[in-house]
Amino acid sequence: MVDRKKVAVIGGGVSGLAAAKAFNEKGHRVIGFERSHDFGGVWELSRSYPDVRTQSPKSLYCYTDHPMPDDYPEWPKGPMVHAYLHSYASKHKLARLFRLNTNITAMHKRIDNKPGWTLTLEAAGKEWTEDFDFVSICTGQFSEKNIITHPGQQDFVERGGQVMHSSEYTDPTVVKDKDVVVLGGSKSATDIAVNAVKNGAKSVRLVYLNNVWRVPYHVGGINFKNLLYMRAQEEQFNGWDRTPVSRALAALFKPLVWANFRGLETLLKFQLGLKKHNMVPTSPIEKEASCSLPIVTPGLFDCLKAGTITPVIGTFEGYTDKGLKLSTGDTVPCDTAILAVGWKLGVPYLSQEYQDKLIESDGQYRVYRLSVNPDLPDMGFVGFNSSFCSVLSAEMIANWLVRYADGQLANQPNATQMNENIDMMLNWKRTERPAAKVYGGLCSAPFHFRHFDELLADIGATKTKRSNPLAEKFAHPNATAYGEFLASAPQYMAG
Ligand SMILES: Cc1cc2nc3c(=O)[nH]c(=O)nc-3n(C[C@H](O)[C@H](O)[C@H](O)COP(=O)(O)OP(=O)(O)OC[C@H]3O[C@@H](n4cnc5c(N)ncnc54)[C@H](O)[C@@H]3O)c2cc1C
Question: Which of 81, 219, 358, 434 is the most exposed place for a label (fewest CB within 10 A)?
C-alpha cells in the first residue's frame, strides 16, 4: 500500500507540467506553484525574445502522449510552443492543480519532524508557510538571470545607452538605427544578433570568447535529427562506467569513430564557411558535444557573409565616451549592449545547509539519475538537467521520480548505492569527459538513450526498445514509443 502524499510542484514550465501529471496520475494530492502569471517557463510570452524557436525538431520536443500539431513547422516558434504547453495542460486538466503568481521563497525540513518540507510561499504581498510530504523541484536552469556589469556602465546608461539581458530583448524596435553589440556566442546571442539586423540596427557585433561547433538545422541537406540523434551516434562518445569489454571495443573502433567525426567537422566547415569567418573551433567535436553545443540560427551565416554581423573573439572591457572597449584593444560604436550571458544555476530558496549537500565545491551537482540526492530525502528535481529533448526527458524523470518517492521502483536504490553512482559519475565528468561538466554536470546530452535506458530499467518497464532493431539503432528517440515503454511498467495507485 502506497500512502497518498501531499506533493508540491515548484514551477509551471515544461517540467512542472510533467511532474504535476505524473504525481496526480498516481493519486497524490498535487499543488503546483508558479511565480509567473502564466504557464510555460522559458516559453512564457513575456520572457521570449522575438523569433525564438526550438533547437529541437518538434518530434523531439513533445510529451509522449501529445505530439505537436501537424501544421507546426519542424522547429516551432516560441508562441507555438507556449500554445502547445497550454494544450497539454488542458488535455490533462493540470491548470486546476496550480497556483499562479505564487513564489516559493524558502524551503526547510518540517519542524514537526515528519518526512517532508515546509515551503514559504509569497503571493499578492502575503507570505505564509505550508507543509508537504514531498517536493518536486521544477524551476529549471533559466530562472535567475546572470547579471554582469562592466566598468563605465552607469555613465553609459546615463548618456542614453542601453544595457539589457538577452531575456529582456522582447521589443526589437529598440535596436532600429542603433549600433548594437551582443555579448555571448550561444544560440540566444546569435538569434538576437540576426534579429537585430532584420530590425534595422545600424551595426551589429557579436562578441564571444571562443569558437564553438554549431550544428545547422540541416547538415549536408539532411535534418540533423536523422544524423546525430541516434543510438549508433551516441555510442561513439566516451560514456560512463565502461566495462573492460566496452573499452576494448572502443579502442578497436577508434579509427572509424575518429573518421566519422572528422567527416562531420569537414562537412560543417564547408557548409558554413567556418574558415572564411575565422570560426573554426580548436577542439574536436566529439569532445565538445554537450548541452552547450548550439544550433545555427537561420540567417546567421548569411549575415556574416554580407558583413551585417561582425564576429569578434573577445569580451567587453568597459564602456567609454568613445564607445565600447573590447578585450581586443578596439573600441567599437555601441548604443545598445545585449548581454546573452545566460542564467545562474541554482535553487536559491533552499537554505545553505542543504545546498552544501547538493553542490560540490567545483559547482557539480550531487544528484542520482539527475534527480535526487540521498542526503535530501522527500524531494527531487524534474528537468533540472539540460538535454536536446527536454520535454521527453522531463516526462521520463517525472515518471521515475514518483515511483522513487513511493518506493515503487523495480531498482529502488539505497543511499549507499546512490552515493556510489553519484561519485562514479562525478569522477567520469572530471577525468574522462569534461564537456559533461557544463551546467553543473546536469546535462544528459549526447547520452539521451543511455539515460532513458537507466530510467526505464529502474522503473521496471518490460518494453524498453522498439521492435525494429534498425529503427532502435539508427532513428531518433520516439516520444510515442517511450510512452509505450512507460506503460509497460508495473502500475499502482497511492491511497
Ligand atoms: C530560448 C530557449 C530555447 C530552448 N530550446 C530548447 C530546445 O529546442 N530543445 C530543448 O530540449 N530545450 C530547449 N531549451 C531548454 C528549456 O529550458 C527546456 O526545454 C524547458 O523549457 C525547461 O523547462 P522547465 O520547466 O524545466 O524550466 P523553465 O521553463 O525555466 O520553467 C521553470 C518555471 O519555474 C518558475 N519558478 C522559478 N522559480 C520559482 C519559484 N521560486 N517559485 C515559483 N515558481 C518558480 C519559473 O517562473 C518558470 O515558469 C530552450 C531554452 C531556451 C531559454
Answer: 434
